[in-house]
Amino acid sequence: MSNQTTGFCLLATLMLYSLAGRAEDISFYQAMSGPSPNKSVPVTFHGTLNAPPVCYINGDGDVVDVNFGNSVAISNINGENYMQPLNYQIICRGTTPVGMVLLTFSASATPFDTSAVQTTIPGLGIRILESGTPVVFGKGILVNPKSPPVLQAVPVKQTGISLQDGNFEAAATLRADYQ
Question: Which end of the chain is less packed: N or C, by CB atoms within 10 Å?
Answer without folding.
Answer: N
